[in-house]
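Deviations from the work plan: none for this task. Representative record:
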Amino acid sequence: MLQDHPWFQLSAITASESSVGKKYSRASNWYLESEIPKDAADMTVLETNPESIKKTGDIKLVFSALPSSIAREVEPSFRKAGFAVASNASAYRMDETVPLLIPEINVDHLNLIDVQRRLNGTEGFIVTSPNCSTYALVLALKPIFDKFGIRRLIVSTMQAISGAGYSGLPSMAILENVIPYIPGEEEKMEMETLKILGKFTEEEVKPADFKVSASCNRVPVYDGHTETVSIETIDDAKPEEVINVLKDFTGYAQKNNLPSAPKKPIVLRSQPDRPQPRIDRDEGNGMSVVVGRIRREPVFETGIKFVVLGHNTIRGAAGGSIINAEALYKEGYL
Amino acid sequence: MLQDHPWFQLSAITASESSVGKKYSRASNWYLESEIPKDAADMTVLETNPESIKKTGDIKLVFSALPSSIAREVEPSFRKAGFAVASNASAYRMDETVPLLIPEINVDHLNLIDVQRRLNGTEGFIVTSPNCSTYALVLALKPIFDKFGIRRLIVSTMQAISGAGYSGLPSMAILENVIPYIPGEEEKMEMETLKILGKFTEEEVKPADFKVSASCNRVPVYDGHTETVSIETIDDAKPEEVINVLKDFTGYAQKNNLPSAPKKPIVLRSQPDRPQPRIDRDEGNGMSVVVGRIRREPVFETGIKFVVLGHNTIRGAAGGSIINAEALYKEGYL
Amino acid sequence: MLQDHPWFQLSAITASESSVGKKYSRASNWYLESEIPKDAADMTVLETNPESIKKTGDIKLVFSALPSSIAREVEPSFRKAGFAVASNASAYRMDETVPLLIPEINVDHLNLIDVQRRLNGTEGFIVTSPNCSTYALVLALKPIFDKFGIRRLIVSTMQAISGAGYSGLPSMAILENVIPYIPGEEEKMEMETLKILGKFTEEEVKPADFKVSASCNRVPVYDGHTETVSIETIDDAKPEEVINVLKDFTGYAQKNNLPSAPKKPIVLRSQPDRPQPRIDRDEGNGMSVVVGRIRREPVFETGIKFVVLGHNTIRGAAGGSIINAEALYKEGYL
Amino acid sequence: MLQDHPWFQLSAITASESSVGKKYSRASNWYLESEIPKDAADMTVLETNPESIKKTGDIKLVFSALPSSIAREVEPSFRKAGFAVASNASAYRMDETVPLLIPEINVDHLNLIDVQRRLNGTEGFIVTSPNCSTYALVLALKPIFDKFGIRRLIVSTMQAISGAGYSGLPSMAILENVIPYIPGEEEKMEMETLKILGKFTEEEVKPADFKVSASCNRVPVYDGHTETVSIETIDDAKPEEVINVLKDFTGYAQKNNLPSAPKKPIVLRSQPDRPQPRIDRDEGNGMSVVVGRIRREPVFETGIKFVVLGHNTIRGAAGGSIINAEALYKEGYL
């Protein structure tokens, strides 16, 4: 996704010890349908530490897609060395001084960077993007939250196997099956949602004040998390009204023409059996979410329910970090 | 499932015009792994009307697995002719004089048969079994409803392709995909649940008084509907208490040793990633439901959530009708 | 695929009675990930006969993707009315006067058009493209056939569900399964292969003179037919030699820059576990075939075996017709 | 499969270090639909060496399902200690003194045990069962080989994911895909087939003298390897004749009523689209092979082709070892 990026240039790649010193084309197992980009292919993989990066030139921004346990140690070391770290790892998402950013929703959270800089005494900082099942939900929630208010939210997910990583899920476990559990996922959805919809005030982000319940399930789909969402709104939300606020929604990313921003962050489907992951996940090059089946939620006096779909390995992974970095650049943090 | 049944004997098979006059072995497309039973194989398929059945001998009970639109006309004609009709069709499930029966839950509803007989002036009557996604939910609800009361319920389903019938769902539609819509299914779950949990009083069944919301999805699984369930209970329901009431639950079917009754109508799984359709659907020969992940529902002050799984083409189809017929026999209605 | 075509312009769409008079956007069930092209969407569907087409203007070329039984009657009626018919239907593929064309292989067969015109006394003619499992095989065979000669060929296929049409294969039939039979497919592969590799001489195409045996199987893959091929060559064919003749192969389509021609009609994979349909089917925009695992065939003294993959719903369907029409245009037949 | 076995009693279970000392129920990840048998569940897992086994009592027979590299060292150590080793590992299948046994086919190979005993100076010995894709092929070949002779054989397989072990194949690798390569599998099929069909004469097994070529593919199926087979026979083999020799085939296992022997080792299907793994793999409790589509092989003057299916994780794994051990018992080797 960084290939031919108008603002960023790939200057170095780091990895774990077993890959260091190899060409990237040999170090990586490239499973994607597209070819490995030429520039990246020929790079020699470096050690994952600030020093090795600094030697390669004047680099300002590093992307982290590390496992959480490793990110917990590595990301602060890069921050300390003065780098901006755009991370998709979960380690610091809930850290009070770290923005958990979706540029359509909460660019005001970037004010946390000053707090973070002051606290750590360095120009470096960490910015994170949400979990792959959270971002899809929250993008669809934002206009509803702003217009009607939310009191309670129940979400049940049907998540793609790619969310578990290439070797994360044996085929014997999931072919012709459903696994009604993804370790840690429900907690992430329940906490991250409230932080993202929170407001920055007086040096901190105050999380949104409503209740969230998530049930997370794995299904035999490659890419695309599908979620059924039930909401108790504070004000009455008629389906047509909800359709209208979702349809017209754009945010900072669109208004400032971030290069990776989809034209429409929320795409609506009017057919009764959509969105479906296989045919709708690539909307907006995988950077949009797709919403359908907007209807009254009958268990609440003022409620709405719908289905939302997001591409977990594009917007829910690297794409989320890249659009975040674009916001950082636009706002002058790089 | 009727093969070697201790109480019932298969005496005739009827079907639509194109099959009439053929041996059943030739008329049917037998897709099951087991062999077609010898007795059934050699039967000549009759016309679907009371006269053709009456000619074959003294038959008291007919099973109906007709499409709803056909059941709407055919089932009353058999009732009128004096037959007991055990139906899995949806046509008369919500009829006020027709029991919607799960013998573990609401055998008192059989009192409706007298009302029905009186109204139609015939000994014949119709008894129905619930929709394949409803029965699994309601079996798991019954002990919770009795012990704690229910105020609100939100269920999201992941349903097997067999629920759509052998040719119902093209492979192009569902392989590596999710379809977040099943026509009519959500309405059925929302209405049938309340009727089944209702009480028979003064000539009618008063439906249970709480609110239900269903979101129904199709996933690439052969058999077994998996459902995530969120409940607001009236009294506080601690997970351990819920585990206890579910674990010990038995009903009329068990107490009266109905031949098709599973020993345990509700089987609990303690592993965090269970139940799974592929490995748990055959519990109790497909006649039990399997429940797991019982935990607090955080959006309600007094709430519980869990996962339930039922075998849609056994208990959710023919098996439901047969155990109902067994209750009819035991109660002297045949 | 005709959208923005440099040589052709879509002027009319016809279909069966039930669609006539509707806008194409309403008449069609558009299941593709891409949007329905604007021009096509707004066209009114016409009756499938030469008169309705003639009324819409000066149309020279019609594409036929009809079921074989209908093509058998309709295609000659268009030919009689003077149209060039580029067909992907099987009805006339084996007709002695009809070219069965792959523009990389047998453009000399277009000489049959003169024979066909003379015989039918009309400027109109039919040109066909091969069956979706045949074309992939034959493209890979051509350079081997020319260089080493072929005495015997055994092919076993693993074919995608899309080959059966959108509603052709119930999900209950193929999920987690293999169906070792596709009606008529083996005969098509065995006959079409020999015709395509035949030579035009003295007013007719003499089929290639070797023996072919096909075993055709359906597997749960959306798109892409994978085939294992065993060949007895006439001259000794070392794997490295075969790699070389395949790697360098181009044909008429490439030399004449047909707009839909892939740069490389045969793409080689050197990894031992490739080609795989899910990750290799889109090579050359689905217009190339992908070959791998080239190795000695031990049962023959002079033999070779390999795996070939082709995209059945692109090159194996509409794409095959379009590149054929491009050859017709280039050769002055339109 | 050993539960309630009439001849054998489970006395001990061994495993790798990480499991030693635990109850089997805790050491194993039990993924099967059936419950873990009570006796086995409560056993304490022992170290995998002859001493630990000897301590538990008078044990004569050990089953080995070890990875090949470990079997290479462990199995001889048990042999040396005097145990009969019934192995499903590949390590010693091609060893000249080790029987590669299918009790329907080559019980005469048990004579190798005497050779083996003499050579190693111990009563202990190793007997092996074939690879999961080999056994299905060879069972179907045996009657054809005996009646018509075989000159050449080409087989292309579509193998289930369970053949790679529970965690062997990531879901990302195989969902909606085919992998046309299984490391080492083709070599095993080509060599084992000839050894099994060989004759014991003068202290050794002379392999059958024909040529075999295998192409091995992985498909998204849980259990059941489906294989298309093309044979050049020595004598002319009409399809009806082949049907007859297959239909009537029984072997030593049936004649001697081995407890695990299926009544019919080869089950024929007459429907054109059978056998299919999902619906036919459980024939004979997974101990039979299922053959269909028997027809002329057109590339050979005297040839036959067909489809064969075997259950890779029953007869192709533990089931193969157990029926072998039953033959050992019956023949007095235990």
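The mean pLDDT of chain A is 95.
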